[in-house]
Design goal:
Shape: elongated
CATH architecture of the largest domain: Orthogonal Bundle
CATH topology of the largest domain: MDM2
Helix content: 25-40%
Distance between the termini: 28 Å
Number of strands: 13
CATH class of the largest domain: Mainly Alpha
Low-confidence stretches: 38-48
Largest sheet: 5 strands, mixed
Oligomer: single chain
Strand order of the largest sheet: 11-12-10-9-13
């Protein structure tokens, strides 16, 4: 369009090209007519209208590894069982009370039987640590369990996965002609469509965006925006999409106020 002299584009700030003029009298524009939608197409558009985004509920969970299966055996759990933090604490408390491990003189201390020793102590501690405070015992148990998480999207069944959920990753990169771009990955894990996010950012930042396969990630796309757009991206994710800050990394890369790009 610039070659046809319909628009004029200039680089107003480093790495960001903006439209500075439009020839509204150009024949290509004056001859453009918006077609009237047919009743059928109108119905299809209304039916396929996107629902407003609601962030998923993300709950941390714990998976029982083989090394701790004996500790959870009495409560009916085995290797691979998925538990909430509250369930883990209750199981450990019941185990200690049932096996008379609570110190008779100090109820805040728990004696470690052979099973607890094998599950939570390091090798160097096996013959030196005989009892632990409740908070230390529970913390160690949680740390020895394998991470898992549950994601629940509005109106859908919960999805449970092992491991830790990958945060939305925001990075800055240099492209051709030393132009800076903002790259965001892992949007799909939070129910966000990369193409929709790209279109929204293109409009708000007035900068070009592209969507492409994320390197090294199977079935995942990344969004690239021209210039440092971390501030706009952060506002979109935190304020509009209401995603918790702990699930987004790279927000600190936003340009500082008053600093030249």
């Amino acid at each position: 369009m610039q070659q046809e002299q319909i628009i004029q584009v200039k680089e107003l700030s480093k790495g960001v090209e903006s439209i500075v003029a439009v020839d509204w009298k150009h024949p290509r524009i004056t001859s453009f007519v918006i077609p009237e939608p047919s009743p059928t197409s109108q119905t299809i558009q209304e039916g396929s209208r996107e629902q407003p985004y609601h962030p998923p509920d993300i709950k941390p969970l714990y998976c029982v590894p083989a090394s701790m299966s004996l500790l959870f055996q009495e409560s009916g759990h085995k290797k691979g069982s998925i538990l909430e933090g509250g369930e883990v604490r209750m199981i450990i408390i019941n185990y200690a009370k049932k096996n008379d491990l609570v110190d008779a003189d100090n109820k805040n201390l728990v004696h470690l039987d052979p099973i607890l020793c094998d599950c939570i102590l390091e090798k160097s501690e096996q013959h030196t640590v005989m009892k632990l405070p409740w908070d230390s015992l529970l913390t160690r148990c949680l740390e020895k369990l394998q991470p898992a998480y549950q994601v629940t999207f509005p109106g859908q069944e919960p999805i449970v996965k092992k491991g830790k959920i990958c945060p939305i990753d925001i990075t800055l990169a240099q492209r051709a002609s030393n132009k800076k771009v903002t790259v965001v990955r892992n949007l799909e894990a939070y129910g966000l469509d990369p193409c929709t996010v790209a279109a929204t950012l293109q409009q708000r930042c007035q900068a070009s965006t592209t969507v492409a396969p994320a390197p090294g990630a199977k079935d995942s796309l990344q969004v690239q925006i021209q210039g440092n757009q971390v501030h706009h991206l952060g506002r979109l994710l935190l304020e509009e999409y209401q995603l918790p800050r702990k699930h987004i990394q790279g927000l600190e890369k936003a340009p500082k106020p008053g600093k030249k790009k």
